[in-house]
User: Fold this.
Amino acid sequence: MGRAYRASSAEGRQAVAGMHKKDQTMAAAHDTRRKSEDGLWETVKVIIQALLIAFFVRSFLYQPFNIPSASMYPTLKIGDYLFVSKLSYGYGKYSFNFSLGGFGHEILSCCPIDFPGRAVLADTPERGDVAVFKLPTNTDVDYIKRVIGLPGDRIQMREGVLYINGAAVKKERIEDFVDPEGEIGRPVEQYVETLPNGVQYRVLDTEPEGEADSTQEYVVPEGHYFMMGDNRDNSQDSRFLNVVGYVPIENYVGRADIIFFSISQEATLWEFWRWPMDIRWNRFFNLI
Assistant:
């Protein structure tokens, strides 16, 4: 009788211990699952927060752009990536446009605000600024050029020399521009221009008697600006009234401030082993 009781008690204790062990295993599994879910949710929250911060910065502070053409050589090269300051001229009609797309098709577009001029923190472009703006003849297209003419200015090109309000802009010949990557295949005449406010920059003259080297006199309307590319013979700009023309103040996106990345236009996504050689390390963080 005593032995049977002791055996029964031992079996009971083993059963209870087994149940405790099972409960502990289930609790441990539950804790692990909960920790995994908590970790996943924390990761999701971090991603959402990062996206919201990126959206805020892009919408209100700095927007990244890349350079697709040679119209601003030698200042900006194809494959340069730069930040455009939206605070420079205040917020306008095209400051908050956001679009998402691929393969030449727009998937999502939001936040256009239709009002004239600059409404918040308003300021005006200065002569010599490099600025991004919406093409007046097609506002789906972004252009980047240099501000040459202010409202009321008279602008003209005469035999390759820029005139502002009847006075020739100082143009000094320097060494030829030679592109080490061969994007411009031959040495090109290069000059330093000095605007009336003292801003200096380099311009190229690829054709001594180019199409737009001699023009009519343009009178910049009130509230508009005259834009030109630094690669004078390879730039569609305000000299071509039917393509670009005068740029309204509300079309400005912002001022180009700094190059944050640059890579040769010959670089390809699949030849990743060439990226260290194709990246233009010396152009990183160059001020514009």
Notes: The chain has one domain: 63-287. The chain has a mean pLDDT of 82. The domain at 63-287 is CATH 2.10.109.10 (Umud Fragment, subunit A).
